[in-house]
Design a protein that fits this description.
It is built from three helices and four strands. By secondary structure, it is α+β, with helices and mostly antiparallel strands. Strands 2-1-4-3 form a four-stranded antiparallel sheet. The longest helix has 12 residues. The termini are close together.
Length: about 100
C-alpha cells in the first residue's frame, strides 16, 4: 500500500493560485500562505494533510500525489473544489 505525506493550498481562482505559487517559490512560508489563503480545513494546520493513502483523495489529486516528484510545489491543479497547490513531502510503500 502506498502512502504519502502531503500539504496543499486550495483556492477558488487560478490566478490567485499562480500568484501564491510564485510567492512560495520566491521564499514565502508555505504554512503562512496556506493559513491566510486556503479554503480547505487543512489551512489551520498550514495546509498539512498528513499521511494519505492511495485512493483517498479526489482522482486528479490522487494521481499527482502518487506519481509526481517529491519536494516540489505542483500546480495549480484543477478539481471540482477549485485550484490546488500541492507538495508531496515524501511517499512510502508498505508491502
Amino acid at each position: 500500500m502506498q502512502t504519502a505525506i502531503v500539504r496543499h493550498i486550495l483556492v477558488k481562482d487560478k490566478d490567485l493560485a499562480e500568484q501564491l505559487k510564485k510567492k512560495i517559490l520566491s521564499g514565502a512560508d508555505f504554512s503562512k500562505i496556506a493559513k491566510q489563503y486556503s479554503t480547505c480545513n487543512s489551512a489551520k494546520r498550514g495546509g498539512e494533510l498528513g499521511e494519505v493513502k492511495k485512493g483517498q483523495l479526489v482522482p486528479v489529486i490522487d494521481k499527482l500525489v502518487f506519481s509526481a516528484a517529491e519536494r516540489i510545489l505542483h500546480g495549480p491543479i484543477k478539481s471540482q473544489f477549485g485550484f490546488h497547490l500541492i507538495e508531496v513531502k515524501f511517499r512510502t510503500e508498505f508491502v
